[in-house]
Amino acid sequence: MEGLLRFSSWVDALNERIGWICDYLILIVCFVSAGNAMMRYLFSYSSNAFLEIQWYMFGAVVLLGASYTLKRNEHVRVDVIYSNLSERRRLIVDAVGFLCFMLPVTIFIIYLSVPVFLRSFASGEVSMNAGGLILWPAKLLVPLGFSLLTLQGISELIKRFAALEGVIEIETKYEKPLQ
Length: 179
What we know:
Number of helices: 5
Helix content: over 70%
Low-confidence stretches: none
Largest sheet: none
Number of strands: 0
Structural class: mainly alpha
Order of helices and strands: HHHHH
Number of domains: 1
Radius of gyration: 20 Å
């Protein structure tokens, strides 16, 4: 279990760094967006590349930030059930959810998205918009983001099993959102 927990710590640290990058990507997206608007209104100049780079960065934040969100335990839950369970049962629900739902879906999405990225990369696919950007970086975000999410799911699963065995403690407390 000790080796698995070291792996889990490594994955957590990786996704913590990815989350930090996503934080700064949001700031950069704001600057690019503001710069694009200023150029359009002040100089009557606009470029599809500015719009597309915003989309790429926003896609990066969403796809790469999902693993960070899971690591921070801020993902979506069915709180009607989850919040009324004991801590042990919450750990079991989490483990079953990761094993039966999340991991199969993320692995399947990776399986489907890698060929799409590889075709785009090999062909040098470019946006159909005038002045648009190459598309493969955006298409790479899907398998990369879901790979990070899969790794974080495995990390969370390891931690749930360790907590069920009493090796570590995990905070499973979940507060319902205010209505």
